[in-house]
Amino acid sequence: MTSPLCTERLELIPATREILEADLNDWGQLARLLHAAIPNAWPPPLMDKDVIREFIRMCSDTGGSVFSTWYWVRNEPGGEGRVLVGNGGILGAENDHDSVVLGYSVLDEFQNNGYATEAVRALIPEIFTLPGISRIIATTYPDSGASIRVLEKSGFSRADRLPGGTGAEEGTVCYVLEKRSS
Q1: Rounded CA gap, 143 and 146, in Å?
Q2: Among 101, 81, 102, 104, which Cα is nearest to 93's?
Q3: Coil, strand or helix: which one is 44?
Q4: DSSP assigned state of 141
Q5: What is the mean pLDDT of each run of 10 residues along the chain (182 residues)?
C-alpha cells in the first residue's frame, strides 16, 4: 500500500515515517510532502501527538500487526487548491488475524461534505487486497450519526456484539464489513 489512491475529490496519500514525523514536528514540511495546505485546525479529533508517535512506532515495527494510514487531501477539479481534510487507517485486530480495525477522522470544517464516505469507499478494496484479511471492523459512538452514516453508506452492518480484539471503548457500537467471496 504505497501508492496514493485517487477518488473524484480526494487523494489518499499513504503515511510514511517521514510524513508522520513531519506531522509531529514540522507542518511546513508536512505541507511540502503532501503538496497541500495544512489548515490551522489540524489535526482532526483523536489525532493527537501521542497517536502520531504510536503510528511512527508501528511504521518501524516490521514484525508487528497490520498497520496503514492515509492522509486525505482534497483535490477537487476547479476547487480552491489542495488542502488536508482528514485521515484514516487500519490496524490489525489483536485476537482476530483475518480482521482489521478501521478508524478515520475529518476536520470539523470539512465534515458533512461526503469526504469520509468517499475515502472509506476507496480504502475498502485496498484493505481487502491484504493477504488473509476478510473482515473490516469499525466502532463508533451510538450518538455519532455522521460516522454511522459513513459506515452504512460504505456497506458496513451493525454487529450485535464486538468481535474479540477490536480494542473498542466502552459505550461504542460495532460495524463490520465482510469480504465478498469471488
Answers
A1: 9
A2: 101
A3: coil
A4: -
A5: 87 95 96 96 90 89 78 84 94 84 94 96 95 92 92 94 59 90 66
Please tell me the distance from the alpha carbon of residue 120 to that of residue 46, in angstroms, as a whole number.
17
CA distance 43 to 93: 25
Determine how β-strand 99-106 pairs with β-strand 135-140.
parallel
Instruction: Give this prediction's pTM.
Output: 0.90
Q: What is the DSSP-derived secondary structure letter of residue 128? A: T
Give the integer Cα–Cα distance in Å for 41 and 137: 28
Q: Give the closest residue to 1 by CA, choosing from 103, 90, 105, 82.
A: 90
Q: Which residue has the cell 461534505?
A: 113
Topology (CATH) of 5-178? Aminopeptidase (3.40.630)
